[in-house]
Amino acid sequence: MNMLLADPVLKHSRSQRKKISVVAPCHNEEESILEFIRRTVPVCTNLVDDDYELILVDDGSCDETWNIIAAETRNNDRIVGVKLLRNHGHQLAATAGLSASNGDRVLLIDADLQDPPELLPEMMRIMDQGADVVYGKRMARKGETYFKLVTADLFYRTLSFLSPTPVPKDTGDFRLMRRRVVKIFLNMPEQNRFIRGMVSWIGGKQTPLLYNRDARYGGETKYPLSKMIRFATDAITSFSTVPLRIATYLGCIFSIVAVLLLGYTVFSYFEGQTIAGWASLLTAISVFSAVQLIVLGIIGEYIGRITQQIKGRPLYIIDFVQKGELRIEADV
Ligand code: UDP
Ligand code: MG
């Protein structure tokens, strides 16, 4: 598979499986990362003593995030820093972190403390009862704008209407997964990685855990409107081909309209009237060309993604992995 996984980099340290891996992608999180570590480490220690690892992926941050992570790896040998060569985006940074993990169970969590790490013991309990995946389902979302809530709601509605794979509403990527789920996920070679959808697609026993999503601990969201739109189109195009079918339906509807118009025009001609007016002509041309352009655009979205996929470039590039004083360069 054409992916630059982190495990070859960490091979020497993989002999011993940990009970829990916690994976957090971080992009410019200098304000939250220390507090995140401060809250997450005791949760893990209480659960499994030292048998955990905390993998912090620095996704091309341009602030102090990496320096803080590197310093923390020296303070605690359970902390592993994975430094990506540049910013690859949340979903790919999370994938890089998952590929670096080796725990029997892996918690994927944001580094901004919107998802409380204190929920891990409850997630572990649910998993003890047989779940393959325990995903956080948001009841309340503090500190989010009204706009974000409305657009997120619209996104989930559209997705559930279009996608044959049910993606649970009000969930993010905050989830505890068994190793086998992580393994299957890492073997899925798609470039557009909509993690929550891909994990839903895998199936098995997936159980929600209701929680209140907190406000960010510090800093700002890394998902401005433009990134949200990209994220949504990526999700829809990789989980549904219904938009292409809608294009066909639109074509059919407008063909019927065209035939009716033609019939009307011919009928009027034989009745001795010619239909006057450039306005109606212009309206018809505008409507039909607009529909054509939209349909072309939809097809283009899919073709663009096919092109991206067949290039088969690595999903992300790891600069190096830091464990304590040890800096393991990625073998590229
Ligand atoms: N993130 C990342 N790379 C990016 C953008 C975000 O690794 O390019 C991380 C970010 O540091 C955070 C998580 O992904 O830990 C979720 O991002 P954010 O909190 O900005 O998204 P929101 O919660 O606002 O949807
Ligand atoms: Mg956040």
Write down the overall mean pLDDT: 91
Q: Please work out how many helical segments DSSP would assign.
A: 11
Q: Give the radius of gyration.
A: 25 Å
Distance between the termini: 15 Å
Helix content: 40-55%
What spatial order of strands do you see in the largest sheet? Answer: 7-5-6-4-1-2-3-8-9
- Following the backbone from N to C, one meets helices and strands in this order, namely HEHEHEHEHEHEHHEHHHEE
- Ligand types: uridine-5'-diphosphate, magnesium ion
The name of the CATH topology of the largest domain is Spore Coat Polysaccharide Biosynthesis Protein SpsA, Chain A
What share of the residues does DSSP label as strand, in percent?
A: 15-25%
Q: Which parts are unreliable, with pLDDT below 50 for 5 consecutive residues or more?
A: none
The overall strand count is 9
